[in-house]
Design a protein that fits this description.
homotetramer; alpha+beta; Chorismate synthase, AroC fold; five-stranded antiparallel sheet
């Protein structure tokens, strides 16, 4: 199911890499919200390939077409649907993957799940390209959230062990967040960018790829969103984030590091600030008991290295049950993380708007 | 919402720490499945307090009463409901938390979310005690899964940085897994136990607490369960696991470590084994593209240190908006991780049975 | 699935006729709402058997026990759970139905659905007794709705063709509605009561049963609740009402009669009334395009005659595949409709509160 | 929400009457199912306007475009999405309805629900045109169901009181069902057609409209589908059927007539037929306790008269709060029922396939 079923928002993503189109429907958006289509396209450009030397040179026609849900530039209460037409015709490169699955991809598991009827070309419905429709949904949610004082931004926290400075858990100023959103390679520390680019390009030259961690912050989130147990914000956010292809880990606040701490170190003390309840630190990542506490939401998302690599790999023939060698041709991102930055923001935005509408 | 809404299984958890009872309903269990109530109680004993010197000495009457859903020891197709009566009366210790929230707990966020009407005693519906009903649901699912050849086990992977040996991602033998499930302190390496006990008891003596990581494996899971994006197994498992109180991170397979690897290191090559498709390694944790690949499922879950500590902490009065000092009295686990082991198994079992029933 | 999955409210009903208990969980109630337990019990008494000579003389201990979800008489945000213990032990009368299904009951279909493992005693989970937990949920919703100016009432519209006067679709005064809710046999026209009682008792004497129609009105519902297509109020209400055992038809406003009318007769003209938009008539039953229009909601629900009758009926042995004769012993309602009146109100209340919370 | 959220199938309908496109996504279709696009288009032609003198002469370009979900003519496991482009530009006729709502339409309620931001042109998302995407989903489900021996057909049972003969509740032969599906005016009794056409055309000449009842049968449905209470087949079917615009009543089997019968008349006795359990009659409409009993499913759906009529009607100005007169210009169906026949089949097919996939 490629349906994100929020309480108030439903986001349904459809398409295959080489089908006539990919797209998304978003149901439950509040009516009367202006949608800035140029801002939406700029957002999509952030994940589009071909924007940066570290990314694939492949071009996608990511121009979305809004089919319905808007009237004179505003949401009208009806479901919004948008499509991106695929201009690429079915590439021959992919024909083999129906029989010889690419390691690290869904070729084999989709084959089992769908009894051999899956569309393997370009990864089909499992392609990273399906994050474009998610970004359409997210971009619209972000516009609505920003009008309510909520600002979401993400950066490349690490690439193959090279680190950017972390977000200040107490919050970042608006200027810093907005700068990230206009950067072609979003990091907080300019020095990190050069090092990260170097490790990515090194991997690329060696026909290999690298993984990375994206860190996301959401400032201005009011206290009181979410609920206990499976309705908690961590559950909702993680369900959306693990829906992004290649994500293998999600943590909030201190996350795995919290497991090394003592309670006296990890607990965030309450304080009175400007006459209101606040917290002195933010190791909880803005969520206590599944409910937002008024501090910035803070989370990190681990992306595995791009499974498509130019090197020869071991695989098998699904029909002949023989070992086979495989090389993945074509142009692929040597690192997903930089292009995943807006995708993470989009997933977080969908969940936050859904929670806010309750 | 304390409802786990699977496609086929719905698990609804109810209760507050000091309400007359806590309990669970499970809808969608296949009919005709034997439920061994003694095995169920043994499973619950694994999370019950007072079992081990590292855990709280507080006793809970965790004896569950099955209200319906069984006929002559077998599931009858109707929803199963079970309750555990609370024998503790409302403790005075907790009365203050309605006004002075405990750091690291949901006292404050529940106050905001429920407008001051929340039941703060013992954490109310946010109490770790609510994992007992989850264990009832999980224990029943585990019995059904074991009859289908699926074995779930977990162990304490780390406590405050002290490590047990990790699970072999290619699988562990049944004997090892079953030994974990009868251990009072479930680790793979006996040497780790002593060190972990030491750091826990040291924290306890210092009126403090420590966090830990629980690692869980599920062997015998067939390939083909799950689906793309938000219907993927990582999304489903993470949504359930983050529903467990105190969880702040979840990762699958190589997880965050994958973000440091190269594609050529992280991809699991396909091989032919006994005439069938298999994988040479398992850095994917048994899930590719959201769908199981036939390898063991492997995940790690980070638990923060118990927020209840005996030391004085900074808090505030919600009504007076003044800074206050707070000491949490009562008997609390200095570390949640060991008792969380069966809870993690339970959450995983619910998700797996739901996926298997599709 | 015995789960009513509203957008904001989830009502999960559990139990079998002869299990230790039946009950309900209600998640999503707004926090801070007073629950009058005496009023709740009075509501339950309206559907309890043994209240009226036309009903079964069988007694049920319908005293509910609230397990959680309340704090000092108010909802606390946590799921509310309530149980009614079954005092009846397993009756021998029912043992045969595991093999010889009662016509008109779910004995046979449950046998097929659950592979012979169903609990057939007293109809198991399919028993009309399971409407008691629905009434618990409904009674609480009604109390909350009444504080918001919404009044729901129902009456016996017809029994075996004997008619009560219909509700005035433009609304009834509060006094009339409240009188219905304290009547042991709720009709608008006292003359109808005598005739209805007569046909019921005549059927009873002849070891037979009769069907009836319950009409329900909800006054004070604001315009703007609901949505298009499958999210429309008719869809939501019908899904809940057909969940009540023995319901075979549901219609709104003019309902099936509308199919005989012309557009010029059936359209409700808009008018200005006290400076606000209103409607001159209410053949739509208060719902246009799935959304409430500010007029009273009006619906009728057809109940089939009680399938349990004392006469000999034709059935079969499921194991021997032979024709068999069957007499249903025990005390059964010769007509369900009068006792179904509060059940219909309860189902409507759950749906309305859910819609109102959006 | 225009989402039909089945357990296994999710159907999400989007579009407005004058938006660039309308369409549908269907998630959960089994993989490997052939989809005959010509048969799909023939099915859509049955609801298309301009096919019959009793229907509107307005032409719609109902040619669907499949965007994804198919590979070489078969479902591939990925969500299927299809759109129908709207060639009509925004008509001036509708501009006024943003301020002066048409009686019997959703213009006013959508205005309240969406705060004046709704797309009123042509009824926007509330237009009967949105049943075309439902028919796309239904047509695909029907093809899959037919391969499993399930045949769904409907006919015009009554128009303004003129009756066709009812379906034989024990089932109709395949030839009869298929003849209905190729008829331009689907009735069982040819004599009924002439009379029905006459009353429709008479209403049309008088600038008025008439209502009607559509009866639907599903033969070959196996016993055991569905479940108790809110998961029952009546609840699921009714939720889908009331999602079709203009439906005001739904009944199963004997339906409202059952409320006039005695138990001894209404109960369907069990019999042994060819060595298997069967039923001697089918007043239950194939559903007992929410679960199919192996007999044909039988239901009737009441459609109100088309609210769009050429006569002058009373309405109001929403902005000026003044009474206004209104004439609905344009070409409208004087009776919805004949064109609704395939829409009812489609809704039933979606629910049945969803239940069958469990």
């Amino acid at each position: 199911m490629s349906l994100y079923l929020g309480k108030n928002l439903q986001v349904s993503i459809f398409g295959q890499s080489h089908a006539p189109a990919i797209g998304v429907t978003v149901d439950g958006l509040p009516a009367g919200e202006a949608v800035d289509l140029e801002a939406l396209e700029r957002f999509l450009q952030r994940r589009a390939p071909g924007q940066d030397p570290t990314a694939t040179a492949r071009k996608e026609g990511d121009k979305p077409k809004i089919l319905c849900g808007l009237l004179e530039g505003r949401t009208c209460g009806a479901p919004l649907a948008a499509v991106i037409e695929n201009t690429n015709t079915r590439a021959q490169d992919y024909d083999q993957f129906q029989d010889i699955p690419r390691p690290g991809h869904a070729d084999y598991t989709a084959h089992v799940r769908y009894g051999g009827f899956q569309d393997a070309a370009g990864g089909g419905h499992f392609s990273g390209r399906l994050t474009a429709p998610l970004c359409i949904a997210g971009a619209i949610c972000i516009q609505i959230l920003e009008r309510r004082g909520i600002e979401i931004a993400a950066h490349v926290r690490t690439i193959a062990g090279v680190e950017d400075r972390p977000f200040d858990p107490m919050g970042e100023d608006l200027e810093t967040l907005r700068a990230l959103k206009s950067a072609s390679f979003p990091v907080l520390d300019p020095a990190a960018e050069a090092k990260m680019r170097a490790v990515i390009l090194e991997a690329k030259e060696q026909l290999d790829s690298v993984g990375g961690v994206v860190e996301c912050i959401a400032c201005g989130v009011p206290a009181g969103l979410g609920g206990p147990m499976f309705g908690g914000m961590e559950s909702r956010l993680a369900a959306a984030l693990f829906g992004v292809p290649a994500v293998k880990g999600v943590e909030f606040g201190a996350g795995f590091e919290a497991a090394r701490l003592r309670g006296s170190e990890n607990n965030d003390p309450f304080v009175i600030k400007n006459g209101a309840v606040s917290l002195k630190s933010n190791r909880a990542g803005g969520i206590l008991g599944g409910i937002t506490d008024g501090m910035p939401l803070l989370m990190r998302v681990a992306f595995k290295p791009t499974p498509s690599i130019g090197r020869e790999q071991d695989s098998v023939s699904l029909t002949r049950k023989t070992p086979e060698k495989l090389k993945v041709h074509g142009r692929h991102d040597p690192c997903i993380a930089p292009r995943a930055v807006p995708v993470v923001e989009a997933a977080v935005a969908v969940v936050l708007l859904d929670a806010l509408l309750s």
